[in-house]
Amino acid sequence: MSLANLSPHRYPRLIRWAIDWLWKIEHAFERAKASGRPEDDARVRILVVLVFFAVLFGMIGGGAIFAAVFSDAGKHHGGGGLPLTAKADLVDRNGQLLAVNLTHYSLFLDPGDVWNRAETRKALLTRVPGLKASKFNDVMDGRKRRVLVEGLTPDVRESIHDLGLPGISFEETPRRIYPMGPLAAHLVGFADPWGKGLQGAERGLQDQLRDGYLNNQPVSLSIDVRVQAALEEELANAVAEFHPKGAVGLVTNIHTGEIIAMASLPEFDPNRASKYSEDERKNRATAQLYEMGSTFKAFTVAIGLDTGIANLDSTYDARTPLKMGYRTIHDYHGTNRILTLGEVFNHSSNIGTAKLALGIGVDKLKSYYDALGLTRRPQLEIFETAQPLTPRDWNDDALASVSFGHGINVTPLALAQAMGCLLNGGTLVPLTILKRPAGYQGEAPRVVSVDTSRAMLKIMRGNVVEGTGRKADAIGLSVGGKTGTGEKYDPAIRGYSNTRQVASFAAVFPTDGPIEAPRYFVLVLLDEPTGGARTGGLVAAPAVGRVIDRSARFLGIPRQMEHTQFDIAAVRPRPAL
């Protein structure tokens, strides 16, 4: 189509201006030819070309400035122009390395530059770990330079480079390495090959890891790898003995909220995370919901004491099952007698606990559960936390069930945080995976009184001395705790199964000393143990005792070898105002 076919009146003003300008240029060419002056024709053409390129480069420059100032370019680098691989080291609370960036190399092969295929093939198969002959042949049969293998360490790269093989080249690539392998893998997490955190601390602490990189400082986690190793080993021993489908372990500092150890089984190796299933990579401590069973009786007893509804002299008739509407509540450890409050706890009486809960009332018990964080998602630096499942209708039936750990599903993380509140003096200290500074004293809301907290330490110690938690005791460490055996709901029978259970033990140590003394919470949970024993006292309590026995010296808890007579009746908490 020629310019003569363009009618300027059919187009907007800018286009009409461009068409008029092109007409003038065409007329200039015609005048130059008509005048017999070809040099003018050349000048005009040069001018047109110069104007065209000036406009083009102006547009490119303007676009670049706009992209740099206003667009989202570079945001995938994690801010500040840094690539996602720019991350600080992760270390435990004592400086032990948990995650680090190490330089690795990708090996490239260019078939066109290879002189001797057989010689190159033999040399590489000998020197390159994991290289298969089929991969070599596939690259050699192509025509382009392609990567042959990734993730070579510097020493392997040097050994291949020294061969001087034509067609071989290397490219440097940073890679995130986890020196401890599976140890604390669910808490530490992992990153993709480009540095983006996908799970655990690697995902949740990306800003801190970037800042640490800029400041050349590692990011210190709250865990202690020595305690972590003890927890994981004892948890693995319990799994080998009772064959559950999964298991959880937790150790926390109840005053600072620091998570000292966190374990989830089955385990995985973050160095090869893609080789494991989603179920294996799932952090059961933070992302799996359980009906925790009788460990919840600690909350019911504490609320009863704190509200003044009960005291240690209160009694509850457990001689006959408790009928409530369409259901009947029985005791697993039947005593068929009237029980004191301490005996209700020690014998894990469902009947006595339900009667205590009815005395507390729905509204008051729920308000305490809200304050303890049991009805909302726990806040933690990692993203893999689950929202609890709570009763749809908070009525008397729900009240009785929840009082002994049925009808409410929470994560082990939520249980640990709420238990810490009962035992640290009564304040809800949020849990963290970051190391707290020395002498840390954060602000935390009060939920129960100091007197109630002291009473719960004594009551939980009594359960280990003379109740269902005897197998959790550790010599000289004044262990207290509560067993939990929660039956799992089975949709097939539309009811709770007596063969599929969650067995747990929630412990605190030491229970003696001032309320502000160093104190730790320990939890072990086995999901559907088999092989005979299924209760928390037989399955989980022994593992807790061994973890405490092995960890006390790392945590600076001395053994008190003098035996003191336990007297729960000496504790008389004052009701909260």
Describe this structure in words.
- This protein has helices spanning 13-34, 38-69, 117-127, 133-140, 154-161, 185-188, 200-204, 206-215, 225-242, 278-281, 284-287, 297-307, 341-346, 350-360, 362-371, 396-403, 412-423, 450-466, 536-539, 541-551, and strands at residues 90-91, 97-109, 146-152, 168-177, 190-191, 197-199, 219-220, 246-253, 259-265, 315-317, 322-324, 327-329, 338-340, 480-490, 495-509, 520-527.
- It has 577 residues and is of the alpha+beta class.
- It is elongated, with a radius of gyration of 35 Å.
- Strands 1, 2, 3, 4 and 7 form a 5-stranded mixed beta sheet that branches.
- 37% of the residues lie in helices and 17% in strands.
- It has 3 domains: 3-69; 90-220, Penicillin-binding protein 2a (Domain 2) (Alpha-Beta Complex); 228-570, DD-peptidase/beta-lactamase superfamily (Beta-lactamase).
- Strand 1 (90-91) and strand 2 form a beta hairpin.
